[in-house]
Amino acid sequence: MIARPTLLDRFYPIVPDCDWLERIAPLGIRCVQLRFKDQPDPVARAAIERALQITRQHGIQLIINDYWREAIEAGAD
Q1: How far is CA 73 from the centre of its chain?
Q2: pLDDT tens, N- to C-terminus, the chain (77 residues)
Q3: Residue 45: is it exposed, middle or buried by C-beta count within 10 angstroms (0-12/13-18/19+)?
């Protein structure tokens, strides 16, 4: 059997904050994007760290585009 690369779900929810992420994480989603803009770096970093905690707990792939440097620093893939 040939191993297939991990692909993103064709459709996945995009949430504006971690409160929404906490609501939908237990529903069985496999991938989610945290999308927010214009936040000070410490606020963005705290949100990313919380999102990583939530998604790791539920086995969800997390996508962060807007603050990708902070995401990498926080240990995101």
Answers
A1: 14
A2: 555 556 666 789 999 999 999 999 999 999 999 999 999 999 999 999 999 999 999 999 999 999 999 999 999 98
A3: middle
The Cα 38–Cα 54 span in angstroms is 22
The model's pTM is 0.84
CA distances from 10 to 14, 22, 44 (A): 13, 21, 26
According to the 3-state scheme, what is the secondary structure of 38-76?
A: CCCHHHHHHHHHHHHHHHHHHCCEEECCCCHHHHHHCCC
